[in-house]
Design goal:
about 200 residues, alpha+beta, 3 domains, three-stranded antiparallel beta sheet, about 25% helix
Length: about 200
């Protein structure tokens, strides 16, 4: 026929070279990550191949969002691989969070499971809280607070006692001295080993 409304489609041999020039549907991937980018059309002349990083076989689209499409290393097929990009992972040694920015399975040093405390340790499958370390830290914090409270009480008692000793204390200061002494006694009786279940005495 003199005319045709058909679009000339390219035909290729086994080596991927056009034995008939024309348009071809191509599927393009990233040149570095090999991740599938988009479908397009390429006008391939006789004897040529499609543009770089493009392939004639269409990838199968994944049903889940946490799957990425990448071209295999040998460039012969499309693969479905794990994709956690945008999620927060946690270092299994330091517990530090990191945003996943790569395609593929997480290394053994990362997990998507969030540690619940600063005393959690990774056992290979999940976080386990080191209760002994947690308790030791609570006791240490309680010891520090007790020491600070005692320092404050000692300073107040020293000042008020001096006022009494030189007969310059007011009635209010004399009464306050007794209250601070009672407070110090109660502080000394605090058992910090019961942290964090400590009922601190009320400050005068």
């Amino acid at each position: 026929m003199k005319y045709s409304t058909e679009i000339q489609k390219a035909q290729f041999n086994e080596q991927g070279l056009a034995i008939v020039g024309g348009w071809a549907e191509i599927y393009i991937c990233d040149s570095i990550t090999r991740e599938y980018i988009r479908a397009s059309l390429d006008n391939v002349p006789f004897g040529a191949s499609v543009v770089a990083d493009a392939y004639l076989d269409a990838p199968e689209l994944p049903e889940k969002d946490d799957i990425a499409i990448v071209r295999s290393e040998d460039k012969k097929s499309w693969l479905h691989v794990t994709d956690h990009r945008g999620k927060t992972a946690y270092n299994t040694e330091t517990r530090q969070p990191i945003e996943v920015d790569f395609i593929g399975d997480l290394p053994d040093t990362l997990t998507l499971l969030e540690p619940k405390t600063e005393f959690d340790k990774w056992n290979g499958k999940k976080w386990i809280t080191d209760t002994e370390a947690q308790k030791a830290a609570l006791v240490a914090d309680a010891d520090n607070e007790k020491a600070q409270r005692l320092d404050e009480a000692n300073n107040m008692i020293t000042y008020l006692q001096e006022a009494v000793d030189v007969d310059l204390a007011t009635e209010a200061e004399t009464a306050a001295l007794q209250e601070w002494k009672k407070y110090r006694v109660l502080l000394n009786r605090v058992d910090t080993s019961t942290a964090s279940d400590i009922d601190w005495p009320e400050k005068p």
